[in-house]
Amino acid sequence: MLQPRIIKKYPNRRLYDTETSKYITVTKVKELVMAGLEVQVIDSNTEEDLTRSILLQIIMEEESRGKPMFSENTLAHLIRFYGGAAQGIFGQYLEESLAAFSKQQHLMSKNAQNPLDNITQIAQQNMKLWSDMQSSFFNTDPDKTKK
């Protein structure tokens, strides 16, 4: 696995890309993420990992312009998961769902000439993902529940 691209955040709120030895903007961090690079933002004084707050800042900026990805209803649902018993499970489910969706998008673009095969593969992957999620949530073996 590749090492993340280290970005240092200085007290003056400037971001410094240690690989290119240049100051960059949050927009540039977004471009790195969009290019598929893993980034890690570190506070230059405390060495605290600030990656999540920078990524959330990017999402907030994107949500405030154009057509938002998350409706108010969706955001309210997300908020309701915080602090509850399902918070960890939902976070894992959301992460796995997004990874599966990205993989499906890649498959669709790679195999655009045969859409029926793509749809079949996606349906099978979704069923497996759902089955795995249920097994994890209820802590059961899916093969035992079929008997």
Question: Please, could you describe this protein's structure?
Answer:
There is one protein chain. By secondary structure, the protein is of the alpha+beta class. The protein has two domains: 5-64; 72-139, no CATH class. 58% of the residues lie in helices and 11% in strands. The protein has six helices and four strands, in the order βββαβααααα. A four-stranded mixed beta sheet has the order 3-2-1-4. It starts with a strand and ends with a helix. The mean pLDDT is 85.
Terminal Cα span: 41 Å
Name the poorly predicted regions. none
What is the number of domains?
2
Radius of gyration computed on alpha carbons: 20 Å
How many strand elements?
Answer: 4
Q: Any idea what the shape is?
A: globular
Number of helices: 6
Which sequence of SSEs, written as H and E, runs from N to C?
Answer: EEEHEHHHHH
Write the layout of secondary structure elements.
Layout: E1 5-9, E2 15-17, E3 22-24, H1 26-34, E4 39-43, H2 51-64, H3 72-81, H4 87-110, H5 115-138, H6 142-145
Parallel strand pairs: 1-4
Antiparallel strand pairs: 1-2, 2-3
Helix pairs in contact: 4-5
